[in-house]
UniProtKB/TrEMBL annotation:
It comes from the Eukaryota. InterPro entries: WD40/YVTN_repeat-like_dom_sf, WD40_repeat_dom_sf, WD40_rpt, Wdr73. This is WD repeat domain 73. GO terms for biological process: cytoplasmic microtubule organization. It comes from Athene cunicularia. SMART domains: WD40.
Length: 331
């Protein structure tokens, strides 16, 4: 299609929803807003539901979700259509969410290991729920496929769950590479076609990056220390993501007003400091940045343009930018 969802997670205070035509970006990186809507609560996470015209959002003050519908072509309105309520959601941090269209359009959501649910988006029927007594806070979750979930605890634990075995224990795997006292987030990449391998990057509030694989999540395959301020002043917005079309490339943000791009192909298990191959500093030079430096709250890679990224910051700025390839780096 001619547009892309600005699929932001953790955009603090964001209360407007926009669909923007990104496929034909001009050199000035202008946006063409095609439709929009208004939310009466902050939006910290937004996910489109594949193969539908629906969106799901979450944000404080509780773990409930809001479902939105993009109107037909003759309208420019994004309409609120329903709310997915959760038991004991009041007083909990906002829900992390992931979506998939498999047997039905589903949303995976929760803020802790013991309140994870899978809900059918259209009927709001609960399809599966966590039965674990463990209450570790979640920093991220993902559908690996229609049956397999990957969960990341804020303290660094990773957990695989099978929705076909709802009574199986749900407990975070022991990860010796995750030191205590740090907050962690994860980014899941794509493995080689035809392989069951899927790379996972885990980022800590002190700038530690650990690479592992879905086949053995307790084993660190490589590690490095990012050249970022340490520790993060607001670890809630840590973000790490794999480039979808550049092997071994990933991006990191959430420490200050910059986004760092790294080539992880040569990393080993030594944990030494890694040099970024590119640093986007544009958010740090906005109006008022000298008095109140902005914090990059989220970034994502463009799905079709290999070296184009989108990033948003706490001052409301939204950037689309390219980075220049150095010789021999990232493909």
């Amino acid at each position: 299609g001619g547009g892309s969802w600005l699929d932001w997670s953790s955009f603090r205070g964001f209360s407007n929803l926009y669909y923007s035509g990104l496929s034909g970006l001009c050199s000035e990186r202008d946006f063409k807003v095609e439709c929009g809507g208004f939310s009466n609560r902050p939006v910290y996470s937004l996910k489109p539901v594949p193969d539908t015209s629906l969106l799901v959002t979450s944000g404080p003050p509780d773990t409930s979700l809001q479902v939105w519908q993009v109107s037909a072509e003759d309208s420019d309105v994004i309409k609120s259509v329903s709310t997915i309520s959760t038991e004991n959601g009041t007083g909990q941090t906002w829900a992390k969410i992931a979506t998939i269209s498999a047997r039905a359009p589903w949303v995976l959501h929760g803020s802790r290991l013991n309140n994870i649910q899978i809900t059918e988006v259209e009927s709001r029927k609960n399809s599966a729920s966590s039965t674990t007594p463990h209450s570790e806070e979640l920093s991220g979750l993902a559908f690996l496929d229609a049956n397999t979930l990957l969960l990341c605890c804020a303290r660094g634990g990773l957990c695989l769950a099978d929705v076909r075995q709802p009574q199986s224990p749900l407990e975070a795997a022991s990860v010796p590479w995750a030191p205590c006292g740090e907050r962690w987030c994860m980014g899941v990449g794509r493995g080689p076609q035809g392989s069951d391998s899927q790379p996972i990057a885990c980022l800590s509030s002190r700038g530690r990056l650990t690479l592992t694989d879905i086949r053995k999540i307790s084993e660190s395959l490589a590690s490095a220390k990012c050249k970022v301020p340490s520790p993060s002043s607001d670890a809630e917005f840590l973000c790490v993501s794999w480039a979808p079309a550049l092997e071994g490339c990933l991006a990191v943000s959430g420490f200050d007003g910059t986004v760092h791009v790294y080539d992880a192909q040569s990393w080993d298990s030594s944990g030494g400091e890694a040099e970024p191959i590119f640093v986007h500093k544009g958010h740090a030079f906005g109006p008022g940045s000298s008095r109140n430096p902005p914090l990059v709250t989220v970034h994502m890679w463009h799905p079709q343009k290999p070296r184009t990224l989108l990033s948003a910051a706490s001052d409301g700025s939204l950037h689309v930018w390219d980075w220049v390839q150095s010789c021999g780096k990232c493909g």
